[in-house]
Amino acid sequence: MSNVKGIIDRFDSAYEVARALNLRNTGQVGQMIKRDSIPAWHWVRLVEAGKERGIVITFEELARMHARPTLTTARPIQLAH
Q: Which residues of the chain have pLDDT under 70?
């Protein structure tokens, strides 16, 4: 499963990501890594920036990475008898 750091690391630098997303500085990229979350409004540009650089990032990957665990994907609960 992907995480934000793994996606950011596909680029040459945090600066390159910040520039691609029109962010003011790399600190905002660092915050995304710290929170392990990329705001959805950046997804389109991130996928486009990846394509421009030969980096594969898909919307499905981003959606799965940000999806919360459900009862079917979470660890089974052991019930006491």
A: 1, 70-81
